[in-house]
Amino acid sequence: MEIIIALVALTIGSAGGYFSGQSVLRSINRKKEGDLDTKIERILKETQEKATKKEEETKDQASRLIEDAKEQGENIKRKKMLEAKEHWIQKKTEFEAKTLKREQTVKASELTQKEKENELKMKEKDLQRIGKENDKIKETLEQQLLVVESQKAMLDNKEQEFQKGLEKIARMSVQEAKEELIKSIKDKAESEAITFVKDRLEEAKLTANKEAKKIVIQTIQRMAAEYTIENTVSVFQLDSDDLKGQIIGREGRNIRALEAATGVEIIVDDTPEAIIISSFDPVRREICRLSLQRLVADGRIHPARIEEVVSKTKKQIEEQIMEIGQRTAIELNIHGLPPQLIRMVGRMRFRSSYGQNLLKHSIEVAKLCATMAAELGLSPREVKLAKRAGLLHDIGKVSEEENELSHAILGMKLCEKYGEKPAVVNAVGAHHDEMEMKYIISPIIQACDAISGARPGARREILESYMQRINELEQIAMAYEGVQKVYAMQAGRELRVIVEAEKVSDERADELSFLISQQIQNEMQYPGQIKITVIREKRAVAFAR
Known about the structure:
By secondary structure, the protein is mostly helical. It has 16 helices and eight strands. Helix 10 crosses helix 14. The relative contact order is 0.03.
């Protein structure tokens, strides 16, 4: 029972506590709602204040932007106005310049027109003057024509007298006299024709000199590779390829020192046990070769040693050159040569021309000149001068001076400089027809120079080109009708053409020889001259039985 009462009491207490708690909660909720409304009103009020403030700030900012935009617009307006003004000033300046130029052009054209008028007036005066001069010349020519006619009449009279004299003295008829006269006229015409041809050839030589030089230079550059290599390169043989490294030296200092001291180019390539020395000056190549020979034999190769050896070698070569010149003069029995010319004669030993050693060529020409002068019956003094000129005729080829003159003229100046006789000076300068021959030994020097250069075996030729030239000679002759056989003889300096007697007459044989010679002369290049011999043989065979 007590438990029930306790439970009831507990239930009632719980209910009272619940209701009292509910009332407390309601009061708390009402209080919170009131605080919330107050807070919301305060937030709304603050938001309105902020919005109002923001609106005022936005209005201020908008007003500032409007003012900035107006200011920028004014600036742009002023800038565009300035640009427009400058453009207008520029256009105005250009217009004024064009106007001024046009005015100057008009003035210049007016001046040019006046100048042309003045020039026309001057030309008119010149034409009048020339007309007067022509009238005077015409009168002079008419007078001369009258004189010529009178002289012609006199010649006719003399011719008649000559004919009568011939008839009386030689007892010749008029027809025979006419034939004799025609023959004399023909001889005179042939002589004049030869003179005319010679004059035209001389004129052609003068006008074609520059073009000929150009053609020769181009030909040398394109076709003379073999001769160029032979005359500009020396090969130095080595015992082993290990010596190449010593010759080159550290970072190439030895080879650079050797090239600088000798003035040549040294080529070290893959050629086994050999190096190449290249230079257009044969004396320099010889100095370099001998210096290398001494350095390799000594074994000490460095820049200081190279300079010492090259210096000694140069002195040795100079002594050798003088010795060669003196020995040559003694051999030819030529006395009184100046030391400078003796040195140049010695330098000829290291120079070649068309594959022919220049010193041997000069010695040969000197001997030929002496022989020819003696055969012609010249005095002993002239024979000695001819020999002297023959030795010195190519001295200009070894001159160390840089000069654009030909070797003949340069040699003449050198001989004149060192006091040679006028006959020797003229012979040296005229041996290529570059000046007039004034002494009897001058044509002798020219002829002997041609003989020495053109004789068989004098100058080197490559076998292939030689055979090609021989074949071309034979093919040119075989192309003519009636030719049976062709033989190139004397190293290509004579061409014998055998023709068929039934097809080629004697007159045709003469004509054939001339035609072949002209075609060879126009189409081929060759040293000296080529003789064309046409052989026509008629054989009559019969048998007696």
